Amino acid sequence: MSKYVNGKIAKLEAYVPGEQPKDKRYVKLNTNECPFPPSPYATRLARQAAGGLNLYCDPECTSLVAVAAEYYGVSKENILFTNGSDEVLNFAFIAFCDAGVPAVFPDITYGFYPVFADLNGVPYREIPLDEDLAVVPQDYYKAGGTIFLANPNAPTGRVLSLAEIEEIIKNNPDHVVVVDEAYMDFGEGESAISLIDKYDNLLVTRTFSKSRSLAGGRLGMGFASAEIIADLRKIKYSTNPYNVNSMTAAAGIGALLDEEYFRQNVDTIRKNRAYLAEKLGEYGFKVLPSAANFVLAISEGISGKDYYLALKERGVLVRYFDKPRLKSAVRITVGTKEEIDLLIAATKAIEEERG
To answer: Which of 6, 124, 166, 321 has its CA 20 to 30 A from that of 339?
Structure first.
């Protein structure tokens, strides 16, 4: 770190993304990517858009917004597209939190929330999950700050019902409630997008990185009242108006329009999730019920760190979080059936080696 950096950045603990080692080929089940390639239609539109890269992209994402508005049944002024959903989340910390309005989120959740808070000089309060690692909705009533809830939560995979989310929104009328739905497509629950016309203090974020197979494209979106979207757009135009490149915007259109491909992939991941949980259960793992494209697997026989390291040694990557309440757990992305079988074979070898 240079001698010129300011104190805030010097003390900042940056977000640590899932590792991407290059020393050999791994079965990669650590970063919640979709195991299937993007829609062929999305790829074709992105290739076509590449011919115009000499020109700036459309800062309003006009065509993409029109397609998304029809797809999600909302007005165009209720949508903002961003460079991944992380960007819209950061915008929310900038716009709706300050020294007098803290951020509020669970103690076990998406690791970027405390980083965004520290980066923007925002105080925050972490509310513990219960003993089953679930969010207790009543803990967020009259929270006294801007609430950030990943639903389904990460890394637990647990989901709150729409009715529970609505009660949290109703009980915080003077503060924004941000519902991060990065993994909502993999569950059976109803999205909070259906509530944005009813509550002007709601912001719902979505990503194309998971169910839409565009993690490398970096495309996210926010849904909210026209007034909240205007707040976020002001920040966008004060930082990077051209935040979504032309190829990514085109791929986003293709991903939304290719509904059959999307549904097929989501259905396969749901089936594979059940298969993964069943197989892990055969080796004594407790698997939390998950509505996401990952599971949290907990073992009393081996620590999360030891299991993660033993799997990595055998060419399988999972995610371990070095936190007190997660010492016995790892998060495992739901891959293809073949990838799951390789994980289970490695688990069997680890168990046999341990005796």
So the answer is: 321
